[in-house]
Every structure is written in structure tokens, then in C-alpha cells.
Fold these 3 entries.
Entry 1:
Amino acid sequence: MGQDPFTPQPDRQQPFDPNRGTPQSGGTPGGPPGYPQAGGVPVPPGAAPGSQPGPASPVSQPPAAAPQSPYTAPGYTAQPGYTAQPGYTAQPGYTAQPGYPEAPGPYAAPQTPGPAQTAPTQAFPTGAGGFGAPPGQGPAAGAAYAGPGVPPAAPPPQKKGGKGLLIGLIAGGAALLLVIALVIVFVFALGGRDNASTEPTKAATAHAALQGYLDALAAGDATKAKEYALNAPAESPLLTDDFLKAAIAKHPITEIEVVESSEYGESEYLTANYAVGGTTVQANYRLSKVGGVWKLDEVVATDDRPRAWGDLDVKINGTSVPDDGVALFPGVYELTTGTSLIEFDGGDTFTVGEPSTYITDLSTATPTLSDAGEKAMISASQEWLKKCLAQESLTPANCAMSSRLPSGITMKAGTLKRTVSTSGTPFSGATPRLTYGDPTTVTMSSYISIKVSLTATNGNTYTGPASVSQAVGTIAGEKLTVVFK
């Protein structure tokens, strides 16, 4: 190792080795007060060399070999007259630069024996100065060495021109495009279904297909609504545009909301909420994808014509129900029978909330006699009884009160007389009922006892009983006819 040509001045501190944490040993005689003497023990000013004021701190013992300073500062320039301390080793390939400051960490002031302490760092002075002292003054005795002053490093010169600006604009534009792309993807993922076509031949999502179907219903467009069907329903007078428009005009479909759902595979179940004639409906729909287009598995609710209706001309919203069954879009409907004598038990209005296999309200819509029908049946039976009593024949047709004379005896014309022997008004307490499966037929049970008397051609008088136990009525529109059985 060569000697650093920089020789310390009497009024300056020696360099501090940052690898040790204590002043270096081996100071040269005549060094400034407070500089450590041989042995690594600090000697206070005025003490005799070699005196031991107290036990030496373990950290102050010098290592067997002086470690190299980890501080490698390119461009370091040694000050003129500086003499390197014993044990200082320069790094290989080290080139000192003019005006570079000393290694960080000033020397600590003399300390009393005890644990070694790290001296506080003294900041470089601002402005140009050799060691931070005012002009014409050196550092006070024992002051820490601050190193040569260095003016603030100037930033590297920037090349003038538009290249850097162009690069920045390109980078900024790329970032902006990335953000826009992410936003588009995000919006498409969340709301892309709402933007999909709802046309029946272009519905690329289940959500769009169901939305389009319900919108068509709300508009009374039966033709378009049927186009959303996976399998088109059979033609029916209950599935025409005119029929649907009339139904929607009376009971509109509003507040349509199709609930969002993730789509997996070729089949999907969706829930839709809407109001039908003011009644809130939560409906479930199954949809299937065919050729990239979503279709509804069912677009109409279907049911067989109930057996209880028989041949009765039942009408839905004024249109006669076909014999082959009932098919209806969601909506509110009114049942009528074509006559004031018959009504439906449980009400004549029902709601189809969603397409399903059966319309449950139809199976419970059982025809029954109205109050007007009951009164008509009793009244017609009483009228028919009067006619039957007045007939001159021993076997009046449809009166169920035939009489028979002994063999060889004949009745004298104009002598037959029939009289009701039962107390009270005939049929007044009876209960008429429609026949299940044949609602145009009314039956009423009531036992009517009748006394028959006549005069034979031989002059003899004959008497005998007769009775009526059942009246049967037939309804044809507003007309009701009765017979006795």
C-alpha cells in the first residue's frame, strides 16, 4: 500500500474510518488534541501518553488487519499534503477525482472511557469552502472534520428537441387506449346483454330474447311473440293479434324487468318480474340456444279443455274456446258462458302469469247455475208441472205421471183429473244443479205426489196415484226447458 500524499494539518481532524466506529489507532505525534494514541484508547487533552484512565472499550481494539473502507467514491481527489494513516488501503482500480468529499462520517470528539459511541454526522457547508470553516479560520481543536465543500451537482444536460416529448405522448396515448379498452370490456361484460338485439331472429343472449318476448306482449303483438318460441304453438283464435291487443288494452303488462343471470351452455333459466293488470308476477322461463339465437321453450300457457265444461260454449274474453284445448299468452282473462243462467264457481276472471304446461285456474273454473239460472229452473219446472197435470192423456209425454187402467177398461173422454196432493208449492224448496260434464243440463230432485181420477166408458170411476221425482232442464242460451223423469 502506498502513502496518500495528503498530509494532515495541525488544525484539522484526521479522517474517520467508517468500518470501525471508533477513531483509528496509530495517530502521528503532534496530532490535534483528542486524536487517539497507540493502543486504541482515547486520551483526554493534557493526559500523559500511555496513561490508562479506565478499562478500554472492547470495540476500540484495532483488528488484526485494517479493513478496507467499503466506500468507493469514483472521482475522489486527495487533497495536497495529505498523508494516509497506517492501515488505510486504497481499493483496486480506484481513481481519485478532484474536489470529491471525504468518506462520510466525521471523527468524534475525545470521549471518556466507556462504551464507544458513534459521532454525530456534520453536514457539508453550503457554498465553496475547504473544510466548512469561515474564511481565515480553521476548525476548533477537537472539532469533527467535515471534508471539503462540494457545490451541488448540476443535473445532466437535457437534449433539446421533440424526441422526449414524442415518446411521452406515445406512452400516454397507449395508456389511454388501454384504459378505454378495459372500460369497453367491463361495460360489455356487465351491460352487454342490454345492448344485444331483442329481435326474435337476432337475440344473441337469453336476456335479450326474453326481453323482446315480453315487450311484444306488452305491445299486443301476438305474431312477433310467437316468433320467440322454440316450437311455434298451433294456430288458435286465442293467439291472434286482435285477441291479444284487446286483452292488453284492458289489463296491460307493465314494469317489465328481466333478472340478470350468467349464461352457461345451450340452456338457461331466467326470472322476470312484471305487472299484469296491476298484479305483480314473478315468472320463470326456460330458454335454449339454437344456431346462436336464443328461443323460449314455451311462449304460451296451454291446457286441455276442462271436462266440466262439456259442450258449453265457454268464451274467453268473448272468443269461443276451441274444443281441442286452450292456449294463452300471459295476461288477465275473463270467462263467460254465453248465458246469464250459468256462471263459473270461484270467479270468472283468471290470470296467466307465465307459460306453463297447464293453466291451473281453468281446472278450477267449474260451471254452475247462477241465481238467475236457479230461479229459471224452479219456475220452468212449476210451469211444466201445470201443463202435465192438465193433459188428457193417461201417458203425457215427458211428465213422468202415466196411469194405467185394468185390461178391457177404457177412459171416457174429458173425465181425467190430476191433483197435487203434496202440501206447499211444488219445487219451491228444491235445489237445482248443473250436471258435471254436461253443464247445459240442469237436474232438480223433488217428490211431487199426484192423485189421478177418471170415469170409464162403462160408467165406473177409477182412482190411482202418480208422482214426479225429478225435473231435468236444458239450457240453450237464455232459454231453459224442463221435463220430468
Note: Helices lie at 163-195, 206-218, 222-226, 241-250, 360-363, 371-390.
Entry 2:
Amino acid sequence: MHSEALKFTNRDGLQLAARLDLPLGRKPIGYALFAHCFTCSKNLKAVANISRALTSEGIGVLRFDFTGLGESEGDFADTNFSSNVGDLIDAARFLGERYQFPRLLVGHSLGGAAVLQAASRLPEVQAVATIGAPAEPAHVTHLLASKREEIERTGEAEVVLAGRRFRIRKQFLDDLEGTRLRDRVGQLRKPLIIFHSPIDNTVGIENAAKLFQAARHPKSFISLDQADHLLSDPSDSLYVGAVIAAWVRKYIRHPLEEGKSLAQLIEDNQVLVETGAEGFFSEIRTGRHDLVADEPTSVGGTDRGPNPYDLLLAALGACTGMTLRMYADRKQWPLKAVRVYLNHKKVHASDCGACETSAAKIDWMERLLELEGPLSPEQRQRLLEIAEKCPVHRTLHGPITVETSLKDQAE
């Protein structure tokens, strides 16, 4: 995904820091707005993983820091749940003025409660997703239990949350107590999907049950088995992102499904590959199709996709199968299926009797064909010969020139 830093001004005149994540090499089919968890920030790894999954489905994502948190201006002590909802609405308006109003709201923990509270005030929103959200915002006051008496008595107190110090004032507690979220959920009238872990020790699973019971259909619940509240394991946040991306496609339709031609969707007929600042994980955009590539963990990757040589073998295998399918159809032969098994390795040139090269090592690709169907021995032999003529096979055996240049930074 492509990501850029932004700032926008909230209703109190404060500059809030944000990141806009965009699909690779294409215009978004819609936008989502993400609200992070209590005292967290937009840069939480779980937030980035969920955003990446959404951008891979063509959805742009704006994630921002609430007032007084992360890189945003303001004093956290002056904020409350209502001001968070206000920040969320200001972010939606900024997105609408600069790009397009969000059609999906995603909120984590107290951010989940905030998107539920804000959704009815944002008519362009078509779907809402919550992750580990409390049924009532006042639920978070249990995190302040050791300081509750001091806050009530003196009007404020310093608390330590996740190893960081925050000043909490009584107005924060009063605002939480005065919010009746489940009433708002019952009036939501928008598709809702609720994610929650049965072992969440911060916001118990009973909160998901209360929200689900209060909501009207269409509503869905996904259990995050073995996940903690912050989705610390990357596999959990990647799973949440993938499920939201699949679910929301019912409500945010692809431009191709809305009557736009394929030619309008594909720009310049290019393959675009982007590798980020960390690790080897790469996103691939070809036409209107998305792929990924990575390296195994043994060499420093995250094993979230095939490595480049696997993709090369896949191209050869796919081309082989398509070529044999085309030939058999033209000949009207009873070929039911083609399976191509491939392997790649580096071997010493001296071990290859058919190779004419002075190089010490060569690339060796093994290709095993399994042809299903009542074919004669002669037909099977001919298909074996045709496999050698597939276009990718010919490309690999022919002279190849790769011309590399730098793109102008001003473009």
C-alpha cells in the first residue's frame, strides 16, 4: 500500500496527525476511517495490518491520532469520549472534503464505541466494524479503579496505562457515565460486524454479546480465538483485516460492478510491485488483480506470500497448463485436467549434460506433467512436446533484456 502523512484541524482548532493508506497503483473504490483503541495511536501495528488488508481490496484508509495522543496536538487531560467522537466526525469531514466521505468505519476498543456513536451522524457510512469494543464507554473506568477515588475527590489524577502516564479529570468519567451506547446501536440501521476474543481480559466477551443483542440485522459476530485485546499477534490483526475486507465488499462495490469498463479500471497495463520500509513483504498490482510476495522466516521474511522464484515457477506452470488446454480443445482431445508440478534449484553446470555454458552454476527447473483423461499414448506424447512451446517457456529460453531506470521524483 502507499501511505502518506497528513494533518487536519478539528473543531477546537487543533492539528490532528493522520496517515492515509491507499491501494497500490489504482484509485480507491471507497474509503474507511479507523478509530484506534484507548490511549493507543494510529501507528499501532495491528492498525497498520488491518489497513493493509483493506487497501489490498481497493479501500483507502484514514487512521489518525485522537487529540492529545500520538502526534496530534492538545492535552489528553482535556479530552473525553464525546471529544473523541467529535474528532472522528471531523476526520470524516476532512476525508470527504479532500477525497471522499468514508463508507466504512472501523473502531478498536474504545474506538469501536466511538464509531458506533458517530455512525448515525455520518449518513455516507454504509457499514461499521468493531474490534474488542465495550458495550458502554463507561466500561473503561475499570482501568482507572486505583485512582477513581482520587479523581472523584480532587477532580483529577495521574494514571499509568500500558506503561505511560496520563492525566485523567473527573469530566472524563462523567462523560463516560452519561453515554448510553446500546441505545445508539439499536438505532444504527447499518450493517455491523463485531470482532471479539473470548479471552479478552481488558474488555470481556460479554460486551460483544450485549452489542450484538442490541443491534438490528444485518449483523455478524466473529470470535477471535486466542487473541489478546491489542491483537499483539500479527496473525490476528491480519485475519481481522482480511475478514473485514471480504465482508465489506457486499456494501462497497467495485467500480467494475457499477458499470465501469475494464479499460477504465486498468491504468497503463503495468505490473506494479511495492516493497515497504521493513522486511521483504511486497504487494503486487497487475491490472485489477492483487498478489503478494515475501520470503520465508528463515531468511528474515514473514512468510506471508510466495517468494519471487515461486512466482516465476507459477507463471511457467500456469502458462503450460493454459497452452495444453488450448491445444487439446482445438484437437478435441479428451483432456480433463492438467497438473503441473515444478521445482527450482541451483545446480553445478557440470551436472547438466544438456547445458552448454561456462558458468559454474545454472538455474534448474523441473516440470512434471500429470494429464487426466482417456488420452492415447500418442496424444500424451504430443502434449509433452507442446508443453515445451508455451510462451513463458520460450521467454525463459530466449534472450532477455531488462532495462532499469529511476523514476523522476517529481512525477
Note: Confidence is low (pLDDT under 50) at residues 255-268.
Entry 3:
Amino acid sequence: MKLGVNIDHVAVLREARRVNDPDILNALFVACQNGADQITIHLREDRRHIQDADAYNIMKHSTLPVNLECSINRDILNIVTDLKPHRATLVPEKREEVTTEGGLDVIKYEDEISYAIELLHDYIIPVSLFIDPTIEAVQMSKKLGAEMVELHTGTFANIYAMLHSSLSHSNHSIKELQLPRHELAIKLEKSIADITAAAKHAKKIGLEVAAGHGLNYHNVHEMMKISEITELNIGQSIIARSVFSGLAEAVKEMKRVTAR
């Protein structure tokens, strides 16, 4: 299993104080040296964490492939074509969201996504689409010309956390998932089935398959059971773990957990 380490949350911590500490390049080097297979970053339109200079420096200094997540905003796409990452992953964005809340609506934004993919392909940049785990989204991704899909695992992760962690007893409990445990268990089973079906169909029609969002040391084993998924992109849980164990050990541990 390929592990993409998302280092955005190092930049989140830096931006909280507006100083160059922690240094995003230090995070890059540590991840590269301790088991990451690729580096993932998200250059958001609002620049809440990764900045343009970060993206250019990471592309310049990374010894690993860089997976650059971005919106379909044309100004952002122009930066991506200049950066020429190893892959661009097109994701949805809302300025008011805390984090990416769902997959890209490949039906609603078909024309805009088609333009983005054609532009990126003109610069020989492979494209992945970050989508909800549905057959329809997988089919449209193939039609649009993407080489890869990344299945959004946020719904799965939320249900898993409400069922198997202390989330339901915290201030961040998810209201719509405050359900009896047997109902959560049914929802979790369905969510895993949806991801599995989408992954199988994607591989069947010739798409590479990744998964990401909300994956951590406790729930990632469920994704490891799906053989069609060959890449996981994980960030927040690795950076959170590094507060206690250090980034090098946090990356090594996630690599151990996701080894097949």
C-alpha cells in the first residue's frame, strides 16, 4: 500500500502564529526519510495553510512524488501547471468549511472539471478526482478522462469514530450520528460496502484507486481489506500523533500499519 503523507497540518500550526515554525520543509524531509511514499499537499484558494512559496519549495526539494490537491479554480490551475506536480488531485472547496466535507460533484461541474483535466493533461500532469464512493461518480470520472480516483472516506471515518471512540462524548460529537450503537454499526457496514463497490468498479474500468479523509491508526485497517485500493493519503492523524511521538516515529508507525 502506498502511503501519501499530507503535511498541510504542519502549515496549519505555523499559520496559527504567523511564524516559520514549524518549518514545512523540515516536515517534508522527515516524512521523506521515514517511510512516506509520496507527499500530499493542498493549495487552497484561501491559503489557510500551504502557501504558494511552500508549494514551489516542496516541488523543488522533495525526493518523493508530490500529489498536489487543488480546486478547479482557474487561477489555482494556472499555478499547478507552473508547478508541474507528479499528480494533481481535484477536490471541492468551500471557504467556510473546516476541512473538505465531501467529494467533488463530478455531475454538476462536468464542464469545469473537463476543462481542468484537459488543461492539466496539456502539461502532462496526471489527474485524480476526489469523489464520493458511488458508482455514478466513478463512471463520470472515467468519462472525464481522469487516470485515478481518490475515494472520500469521511463518512466512514465519522461513523467509525462515533461508534468506536470517545467522539460521541465530546464537544465535537456529530449530531446526525447520535444514534443507538446497533444503528451506527449498520451504517458503518453500509459505508464500507459503498467504498468497496466503488473501488472494485473503478479498477474494473481501468482507474487507479486511492482513499483518504479521516483515516487514522484505528480505522485504517478497514481500508486495508479492500485490495483495489492501492494508495492512502493521510495527514491530520499523523501530525496529531507526532505531537506525542515525534513526526519520524508517527510516519514510521503509519507505514507499519498500512503495510501489506
Note: The chain has one domain: 2-257.
